[in-house]
Each structure stands twice: as C-alpha cells, then as structure tokens.
Amino acid sequence: MAERTNRRAGEALNVREASSSPAQFGMRQATHRGSDPRRPHLANGQAARHKQRGAYQSTVPLTGLRGGLLVNIPALTGARFFAAAAIVLWHSQLPPFFPADAFWPLDLNGGVPFFFVLSGFVLTLHAEKYRSHLQFMIARVARVWPAYLAAVAFWFALFWPYSLMLIQQSLTEAAILAANISMIQAWFPSKAVYWSINAPSWSVSVEMFFYATFPAVLWLMRRNALRRLAVITLAVIAALILAAALFPSLDATWLGKYNPLVNLPVFATGVVAAQWFKTAGRATGNGTRIQLASLGLLLVANMMFKVEWLGALPAPLAAFISTSAATPAYAAMILALARYDGGPSRWLSQPSLIFLGEISYSLYLFHQLIIRWHSDNLAAFAGIPVWLQYAGIWVASLGVSSLCYLLIERPGRRGIVALGRYARAGIR
Q: Using CA atoms, how far apart are residues 204 and 210, in angstroms rounded to an integer?
C-alpha cells in the first residue's frame, strides 16, 4: 500500500521494457551528464533553474525518463496523507462523532483503491533498482511488516486482557491471529477473518499479493497495455458473475471488494500509468489547471458509483464497480501530480505534508484501533465535549503513527533489508 515516493532525485532508472521478464527486474546505473558538479543528475542548463525554481521542478527531464533519470515526486508523498485521512474520516462515521453517510455522496473509503493505484505507479518507477524478485520481496516486506506487526502488538496491549482471552479460547482464533501476522487474511471469505484483529489491514494482505505478482504484471503490461488491462478487468468481471452463480452463499462483499484477485486491475492501472509516464516524462510549464481539473475529475468519479445505485446487478459485481470504477480518475490525479509542476503539487510538497505522508501507512494501521478503544470506553469520556474527544482521536493517531514511523518502521526496514542482503550473500 505504500512506497516512499520522495526518493532522492538522481537515482538511476534504466528502462528496458522489451527485455523485462517476470523473474528478474535488473538494475544498471546510468551515467548522467550535468554542468553542476554538486548536482550531477541535472541535465545541462537545469542547474541554474534549480536555484530559481526549487528542487522539485529542477529534476524535470526535458526528454522524458528514458535517459535514465528518476524524478523526485514529493507531491505524491503528500497526497498519501490525504488518502489516509479520508479513511480515518470514513471510520469516524459512528457515535458520537459522525452519523452514517455523514460525508455522502463522497466515498471516503476510496482512499484504499487510490493507494492501490499509487502502489502500482511507484513500484513501476522504481522497478529497475531490483536485481531479482527475491530482493524486491525482501524490500517490500521490510517496508510493510515492522509497522504492521507493531499494530498487532498495539491491538494486543490496547484490548488486554480481552485480546489474550480471545486467542486462548480456541484454536480458530489462534489461527486467525497467525493469518494476520502472515498477512494472508484477505484470502479468507469471512468477515471473522479478513476484518479480524485490525480491520484495515486487509488491504496490506492484498498488497502482498500485488508484490508477489508484480514482475508478471510488469511484463504483461510492457506493450498493448490498455488492451491487456481491459482484458484483465473483463476477466475479473466474468469470474465474479460466475462465482456468484456457482457459490451463492459466498460473502458477496469479500468476492467483489476484499478478494485480492479482484483488486489486481486497480493495481495494474497504476503500472500502466507509470509505464506511460516513464515514456512521456515530466512536462514543462505551469500545470495548476491540469492538476485542479484532475482533482475535480477524481471527486466526481468518487461520488458516481454507489452500491445502492447498482442494486440491479449481482452483489459481488456491484461491490467491484463501486470500489474500482473510479480507478482511472485516481490514476489521472497521480499522473497530474507527477508530470506537472503546479500549485497543488507544490503545496503537497511542503515538508510538513511530506512528513504526514511518510507516516500515512502507520496512520492507516493504527487509527481504527484507537477509535475502537474510544468506542469501548465512551462512558469514561462522558463529560468531555465531543469535538474535543474527536480532536484527541486525531492527536493520538498522529502521535502513535509518528512514533511508530520513527522508532519502528524506519529502523525495522533498514534491519530487514540488511538481513536480506546478508542472507542473499550467503546463498551465493
């Protein structure tokens, strides 16, 4: 669900679409020519503009990304926070904070498919840095697992002793915990599993499926990408209709929304968008209007597809459409922020928003646990104004997320990557 998008400008990216294979990524350092020895990644003539226009725009390659230049896109990191914040608001629609559908017609849960598209986009931009699928998987586990395990431990401590009794009461509950720790809970068509422990973590389970299939998806989308994406999407729709007919008792919401397979077209859309971006590169000029238009398109698309408006369709298909139909608009927004320099992208690139984007993964993991704990202890907050209680939810969520990011997520990532490096060296 989340790759750090504000990597240092100047990391090498060697695009080899024709030779990409599902088993190997490959990395080759490109040689950059620049007139400024302090900034060798800038093409001739761009170094002067670096001081005048800031680091964000200075990394724009005039001839696209095929020359090997990987741009720095901090605006996408800032955007991650707002996607996570939308999900926090979505989960806040319960007493005493907001009534159900308080933000109608917006679908704030659309932050999840936005993250899926963004994941495919960013992973594709950085694919060439990995020499093998094993190295890639180690890096992805290092990215998601430390904070993920910290959230499980947080749940265990926050709901003690109920959490201990829940696990001890049956082997089934212990198995559910094991499924959560191994991040496979989204494969089970039961709310008791895919929403267990920490409900939002189902999407991390889906992301692990994306990581496992990423080399194949990248290879498949190397040409005729839109046609192949359409074929994948139609195949998913056909499979949904068939599964609903053959297994009418199957959880329809899981089948059309939480099932990792049905989310693959959403992820693949991000891959396709990144492939096009790598060819087209950054655009010159002011992109404020394009970015604002893309934001308007995103909001309209987000509001258009409601499950209640799709009642004539089979329930799994309605769930799939309501979740995934706005995907092209999410991709357009990501492309607008990545390709153009405009007011929205500059605003999202502020250091404070970049930091909030960095902690957005932890915010996504921890916020509902804090909301659930508050709901279980409402009587203790009876004398406190509701607005102050809700402010406390945000302060606690952001505080815990910041601590997790600084003390667990980043050190854990470095440690797992180092262990993986040693292990691979031993194998060789």
A: 10
Report how far apart, in Å, the C-alpha atoms of 389 and of each of 84, 138, 154, 198, 384 are: 20, 40, 20, 22, 7
CB 279 within 8 Å of CB 339: no
Phi-psi group of 276: left, alpha or beta (phi > 0 → left; psi -120 to 50 → alpha; rest → beta): alpha
| 312-368 pLDDT, tens digit each | 888 899 999 999 999 999 999 999 999 999 999 999 999 999 999 999 999 999 999
**Cα separation, 315 vs 256, whole angstroms:** 8
b vs e for 365-404, b when ≥16 Cβ sit within 10 Å of the residue's Cβ? bbbbbbbbebeeeeeeeeeeeeeeebeebeebbbebbbeb
Rounded Cα–Cα distance for residues 194 and 316 (Å): 16
User: How confident is the model at residue 69, as a pLDDT?
Assistant: 47
The residue whose two tokens read 């992805």 is 140
| Closest alpha carbon to 191 in 138, 253, 248 | 253
Q: Identify the H or E element spanning 282.
A: none
Tell me the C-alpha distance between 160 and 85, whole Å: 27
Whether omega for the bond prior to residue 61 falls within 30 degrees of 0, making it cis, is no
Q: What number is the average pLDDT over the span 293-314?
A: 89
- List all residues 6 or more positions away from 248 whose beta carbon is below 8 Å from its beta carbon: none
Q: Say how far apart CA 366 and CA 150 lie, in whole Å.
A: 9
Please list, in sequence order, all residues whose beta carbon lies within 8 angstroms of the beta carbon of residue 208, skipping any fewer than 6 positions away. Answer: 140, 144, 183, 184
Contact 36, 395 (CB under 8 A): no
Sign of the torsion angle spanned by Cα atoms 73, 10, 360, 117: positive
Q: Whole-angstrom Cα distance, residue 201 to residue 199?
A: 5
Report the Cα–Cα distance between both ends of the chain, in Å, rounded.
31
Q: Has residue 14 got a pLDDT over 70? A: no
Q: How far apart are CA 31 and CA 54, in angstroms?
A: 23
CA distance 400 to 412: 16
Left (φ > 0), alpha (ψ -120 to 50) or beta: where does 160 sit? beta
Query: Do 368 and 159 touch, CB atoms closer than 8 A?
Result: no
Token pair 């930091």: residue: 355
Q: How far apart are CA 252 and CA 146, in angstroms?
A: 32
pLDDT tens digit sequence for 151-185: 999 999 999 888 888 788 888 888 999 999 999 99
